[in-house]
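Batch job 17 of 40 flagged for manual review because the log was empty.
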Amino acid sequence: MMREARITAQDIEALVDGQLDPDNAARIRAAMGRQPHLHRHYQRLVTQKQLLRRWWATLPHIDNRL
């Protein structure tokens, strides 16, 4: 029986930032489906990124590209 590779906070951050190849992204998403705490962490990061983008967009004197 193969042990599943441990999913780290950095793995989830990379998924949120779109930095994973399709195979690793699928592996992380599958693990989130089995482990609710990983999915909650992912959701918090997605929400944080959305809020930061909205805030950043309110700063007209700064380049709004994230």
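Reviewer: the log was empty due to a logging misconfiguration, but the result itself is present. The two ends are 42 Å apart (CA to CA). Unflagging and moving on to job 18.
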